[in-house]
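Exercise: predict the structure of this protein bound to magnesium ion.
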Amino acid sequence: MPAIVLVGAQWGDEGKGKATDLLGASVDYVVKFNGGNNAGHTVVIGGEKYALHLLPSGILSPGVVPVIGNGVVVDLEVLFDELTALKARGIDVSRLRISANAHIIPSYNRTIDKVRERFLGKRRLGTTGRGIGPTYADKMNRVGIRVQDLFDAKILAQKVEAALDEKNHMLVKIFNRRAVDAEEVTAELLSYADRLAPMVADTGLLLHQALDAGKTVVFEAGQATMLDVDHGTYPFVTSSNATSAGACTGSGVAPTRVDRVVAVHKAYTTRVGEGPFPTELHDAMGDFLRDRGFEFGTTTGRPRRCGWADTVVGRYATRINGVTDYVITKLDVLTGLDTIPICVAYDVGGTRYDEMPVNQTDFHHAVPIYEDLPGWSQDITGTRTFEELPGNAQRYLDRLEELLGARISVIGVGPGRDEVIVRHSLLGAQSLADAAHAEDVRR
Ligand code: GDP
Ligand code: IMO
Ligand code: MG
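Solution:
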């Protein structure tokens, strides 16, 4: 049985790493299906902090087979750095499998990502500078370099040369940079081939066979719904499909095999980089959320923009991803506030929007319509059942659940692995009572 897709419902950094880790012990495979080392997942185990970028969080759980699917873009230098660092901390990384069809981020694409952002000036996107956009562009332009190319030196040399033919014109003539030497790039990529070889596999087939054998497979998204290249706040997005459908194209597992879609949603909202964010707070309250929630990027260290929960975005995430369960993280960060506003709709030039406006321009001008809920002051980090939560925290979650339109199954009350309230298991078949509750929420 279950194939579970785990996605971010907002603009990233919802706590997907922790949610995957929480499932860890009962999971057989964890698959990363999109993005690359633009992701940053912090997982805290026994007081020790692990920051992962390229590797799926499942690598921290003994027994789990971590898989990098075909939809991922792989920076080989980062891959081996992360593996070495984890090995040094006693983590067994030998089970990692990487798709032969995954694309590689050559060093020239990191350069292009950075110079392009500089060139754009005020119109920049605020990318992570990891070469993500240029590498996905190469994939679509059919000039990308794939993992399997490393095992055919002649083909690799031809492909690198072909890619650089055009890029060097761009680097020299538009960006005023030095041309990149194709032979140097080829030699650098080939230097990883021997170490990479034992990890390379037909991961689509591997996962298909695992599901046939009744194994549990979690597909862990990088980034999030609003950063999805098709469904997010384009052009202020990443360059891959971070929504649940991406789990299929990015892994080679068919949609009919997916059993559940779990979305991770903070009790408030954050965003890194440029782009619209209706509930963003520019005042002391925004600083409060940033300080209390320690909202600084795991990848770039940039302060995250902070604001209230936005259920227009949330309902959209429920719909686009087909969410069956929500994990609400960081509820503890809201402790001590008198009132907690939830955005229930937008006002755009006098018109009320209960659903995401179709036009990006309208979304840029959306003014949140808030419902104020009463806060609580008791420390909730030690709470392990819903019933033990202060009444107002329960009311906040109930209202959030109603507005999101899918049931809240897990609640995060602290960064630690065990700092969670599990109302409904995210694994296995749903019980009848669980299914009835989910149906009630939808109604
Ligand atoms: P990801 O990119 O979605 O995996 O999330 P990040 O790791 O970038 O950011 C989430 C941060 O929130 C991490 O530092 C986690 O340790 C932390 N975190 C996760 N869940 C909770 C929670 O329930 N409470 C608190 N206080 N922190 C949490
Ligand atoms: P996780 O997996 C938050 C943002 C960048 C930028 C935009 C495009 O940790 O949730 P890119 O380098 O991908 O071309 O940048 O996307 N971004 C993220 N923001 N969390 C992430 O990942 C992100 N990955 C990319 O800040 O605005
Ligand atoms: Mg992150």
